[in-house]
Amino acid sequence: MLRYTLMRLGIFVGCLVVVWGLVYSGLAPRGLGDSNGLWIILLALLLSAPISFVALRKERDRASEQIVRRVDRVKANLEANRSQEDVADDAARTQGQTS
Question: How far is CA 65 from CA 35, 50, 68, 72, 80, in A?
Fold first, then answer.
């Protein structure tokens, strides 16, 4: 998961550098007034999203598999805790009925 995040961040930073270079060389339009920094960031996000979607498909699938395994493990732990509570509750009720 961390690997995917770092790779995604790397693609964004690469796009940010390219967009910054294009804007300051005059090949891409500048933002209005003081919004130039925001304009560069938005253009970099717009470019990096589809690149990440295509280039990181395998890594994204690996990350989602890790998440599914973690969720399944948490569900199993919760179910184990529920069954322990049920056993303890049944034992307490049985003991209360015999007294």
Answer: 40, 21, 5, 11, 22
Instruction: Classify the C-alpha dihedral 37-43-49-54 as positive or negative.
Output: negative
Contact by Cβ (8 Å): 8, 64: no
* Element at 68 (helix H, strand E): helix 57-98
pLDDT greater than 80 at residue 43: yes
Is the distance from CB of 60 to CB of 4 less than 8 angstroms?
yes
Angle in degrees, CA 8, 66, 3, rounded to 5: 30
pLDDT at residue 85, as a whole number: 67
Fill in the DSSP letter of residue 99. -
